[in-house]
Each structure stands twice: as C-alpha cells, then as structure tokens.
Amino acid sequence: MTTPRLFHGPSARDEAVRLANEIGRQVSEPFGDGGLKVDDARTIVELSIHPGVGSRVPVVVAGPLDEATGEASDALLKTLEEVSKTPLRIVLWANHISGVMPTIRSRSMLIWCPPGKVYIDPLGPWEKQARDLAQGVIIGDPI
Asked: What is the pLDDT of residue 124?
C-alpha cells in the first residue's frame, strides 16, 4: 500500500484503525484525535526514520484531517512525500472530506465510510453526487 488511504465519513476513524491493524503494526496511538497539529506531522516523520523492528509493516493513523490546522496540513503533505520513501505507511481519516486540503485528497485513495459500511470513492471531485447516488442505491430509491 503506497498510496495513502483517506477514510472519510461517520465511521472513518474506526475503519482507519481497522485497516492499520490489518496491514501492519501500529507504531503509536492514532495522531490528532483532538485535531492534527504540526508537532504530530513532525513525529510521524521521526517514526518513518526509526519505525522500530518487526516483520510487520509499520503503520500510523492520523486525523481528523478536516480539523487540522493549515500549518499541520502543509506539514502532513510534506510528510506524505517523505514517508513514501520509507517502509512506514500512513492511514488518514476525516469526518468531512470537504475540509481536507485538496492536495492531500489528490494524493490519497478516498474511502467513504457511512455508519456500518465502507465504500471506496474513486469519484473524489464528485463526492456529493456520488454520495447522493450511493445513498439512493442503499435505500432502494436511486436518483
């Protein structure tokens, strides 16, 4: 998994943690539960340099990105570029995708997480229309 996954929606954090545990070993508690800060992004870079030992892939979870400061989003973007050269994998999450920096969205695989369900959202720029259509299919009343 080289492209970061960006889970978004009501169950995004839970799904991000689930995926992190599935693909590897979490090297820390999830970052940013109270809103991602610049220091969190710096710590992720440090972890990418020294991810520890073990046979499983080192993974960190970071979010909610829609509550991150602008400085933290910029630092995370730079971090994503740096970490792509290391074994560390980052799993991202947000409550509302519209609040996530567009450049982070464009570098991530978007996965919509409504309550109790997970959908890969390849239509990121058309998120509202895709969400409306998916909701219509779920309730049996397509638009």
From this structure: 57
